[in-house]
Amino acid sequence: MVAPGHPGAVGLGHAQRPGIRLRPPRRIFRGSAAVRPRLAKTVLAGTLGVLGTGALVMMGLSSDLFGHAAPGPEQMTAEAGEIAVIGGDTLRLDGRVIRLRGVEAPIRGDVCRGGADCGGAATSALAGLVRDRRVACRMTGRDGMGRAYAACEANGTDLSRAIVASGWARAQSGAPELADLELRARRQGAGLWADVTVR
What we know:
By secondary structure, the protein is α+β, with helices and mostly antiparallel strands. Helices cover about 35% and strands about 20% of the residues. It contains 5 helices and 9 strands. The strands form 2 sheets. Strands 1, 2, 3, 4, 6, 7 and 8 form a 7-stranded mixed sheet that branches. The longest helix is centred in the N-terminal third of the chain and has 29 residues, at about 30-60. The protein starts with 11 loop residues before the first helix and ends in an 11-residue tail after the last helix.
């Protein structure tokens, strides 16, 4: 046995010295029951802080940053000098490309009977409809290429109806209101339907 004052004495020797107290062992990991209330308070305080900061930031931002909820379809109007005809069913109004709703015109280079450029003729027909006129369009969505899809009028003339009636465009299957105009153009042999017999 080692004497209590000996340097090799452990444990009891220290406990018996006056003025030195041993502390109970410190627990590094606490049980989950002790952590949960503190964690829940921390998460709640953090969430409230983020929400409060977000609300303050939103109040300080311009309302135009996120846009406005439009009361109806987007409208666009262009004067004659702001209009370019791209194809028999496509316009550029003030730099924005717009496709006419419900019609399908041939593209430039498509050949009609007799070797004529049907796409060029369709483009010329649409150019004649908008020449020196103000054009107003009501956007109705987007086509497969992401272009604005619109119902357009030139001085009150519905351009989709007029280009189909002229025979230089076909009515799309989703536009039954234009199908009768296409049939009439076919029967009259107008535009694309020249020299085509329709029963």
